[in-house]
Specification:
444 residues; alpha/beta; TIM Barrel; two-stranded antiparallel ribbon; 12 strands; globular
Length: 444
């Protein structure tokens, strides 16, 4: 089946910064060589299925604003059943992937298949749409960056999936992840993401933290065991998520996730998928979370979006701040770039952007911003001024004395004796923050 949902008859191409064509890239040329790779291979763009094709434009104070022919409220049942609607949604999705030339997409199971009345029906529906995806992927050459299971929307998950107090819910969640891993493997997915939307609590009055943490540890070990059992070669990822929608969540930020992985023996098996909006909600910057994940050896992939800093909520807007994006890619490129991961647009339109073409325009703008940011990051790395400042700032640790401290040759008492004997009395050295920020501004 083919569609013309967007009303365009040719792919969106690169026309350069001087172009006034809204349906053209101004900065994203997929074949441009940047830092030793094609720009497409550096950025590894993916489109998320849920916000792009599953969200109807509702918010806590109003219903849906988007009119999509596959939504239940608009689907003419005389045309077929819910699976027909799901396939129409897939047709439109792959139409958009092809128009934009994005190499990847991502999905939850509940985004792509109708909700059944049982686990068995859910599984049949997922398998049917997985087979349909496989045909679409072979025809378009679009690949799967990652799959995941929705363990948060259905009312059964109101108290979480892995951390639910009811073992039957735990079992249903585990079985669902099993089917989603099977689907991801069948489609050649590069990763599988565990997103704990409700793995947390509203009140400690009804929560046993120790028990729920152990449940989550057991759940993730089961996921890793099954990955190896079926020979899935992709990376298992956790997406850190703070305080939304629950009061507290066990996967709050990168540091919290790392501590959890270490405790349950998973630090060599699972990495993180970091979202810009979640980093901000956790009280961090995006670059902080990326730098920490790389320092801990658990960086995997990113969800690219932004928050409205006046709202204090995860607004999932398309990126438009080149400086922020450049600093994020500086951390990614500086540590070798993506391996299995990529740049997934976990972003959605504003409720008032109701035209189908708005979805294309949002992605065009986001892809251009990311291209500008990555090229700026590459230029900063090639210039070397920022890195040289780091080398200079920590040069003392390259001395014999610095090495002896780190090798454990001193304790507190022997180090105190050395300070007294040699009258060590250091003068502070400028951190040069403004100078460094000025360097960044040269490139963005």
């Amino acid at each position: 089946m083919t569609t013309s949902f967007f009303g365009l008859d040719q792919k969106i191409t690169f026309e350069g910064a001087d172009s006034s064509n809204p349906f053209a890239f101004k900065h994203y040329d997929p074949d441009e060589m940047v830092f030793g790779k094609r720009l497409e291979d550096q950025l590894r763009f993916a489109i998320c299925y849920w916000h792009s094709f599953g969200w109807p434009g509702n918010d806590p104070f109003g219903g849906e604003t988007f009119e999509r022919p596959w939504f239940a409220s608009h689907w003419d049942r005389a045309k077929g059943d819910a699976m027909d609607a799901a396939k129409l949604k897939a047709d439109v999705a792959f139409e958009m992937f092809s128009l934009l030339g994005t190499p990847f997409f991502c999905f939850h199971d509940a985004d792509v298949r109708p909700e059944g009345t049982s686990f068995a029906e859910n599984t049949r529906n997922l398998q049917e749409i997985t087979d349909y995806f496989q045909e679409k992927m072979e025809a378009t050459k679009v690949k799967l960056l990652w799959g995941t299971a929705n363990l948060f929307s259905h009312r059964r998950y109101m108290s979480g999936g892995a951390t639910n107090p009811d073992p039957d819910v735990f079992a249903f969640a585990a079985a669902t992840v099993k089917t989603c891993l099977d689907s991801t493997k069948q489609l050649g997915g590069a990763n599988y993401v565990l997103w704990g939307g409700r793995e947390g609590y509203e009140t400690l009055l009804n929560t046993a933290i120790d028990h729920e943490m152990d449940q989550m540890g057991r759940f993730l070990n089961m996921v890793v065991d099954y990955k190896h059992k079926i020979g899935f070669e992709g990376t298992i990822l956790i997406e850190p998520k703070p305080q939304e929608p629950t009061k507290h969540q066990y996967d709050f930020d990168v540091a919290t996730v790392y501590g959890f992985l270490k405790r349950y023996g998973l630090d060599a098996e699972i990495k993180v998928n970091i979202e810009q909006g979640h980093a901000i909600l956790a009280g961090h910057s995006f670059e902080h979370e990326l730098a920490l994940a790389n320092a801990l050896g658990i960086f995997g992939s990113i969800d690219m979006n932004r928050n409205d800093y006046q709202s204090g909520w995860d607004t999932d807007q398309f990126p438009n701040n080149v400086a922020e994006v450049a600093l994020a890619y500086y951390q990614i490129l500086g540590h070798g770039g993506f391996e299995n991961g990529g740049t997934n647009f976990d972003a959605k339109l504003r409720r008032q952007s109701i035209d189908p073409q708005d979805l294309l325009l949002a992605h065009i703008g986001g892809m251009d911003v990311c291209a500008r940011g990555l090229k700026a990051a590459a230029a900063m790395l090639e210039d070397g001024s920022l890195q040289q400042n780091l080398v200079d700032r920590y040069v003392g640790w390259e001395s014999d004395f610095g090495g002896e401290i780190m090798d454990g040759q001193y304790g507190l008492d022997s180090l105190a004796n050395k300070v007294l004997a040699e009258n060590i009395n250091p003068d502070p050295v400028s951190g040069k923050q403004e100078y460094l920020e000025n360097i960044v501004n040269r490139f963005v």
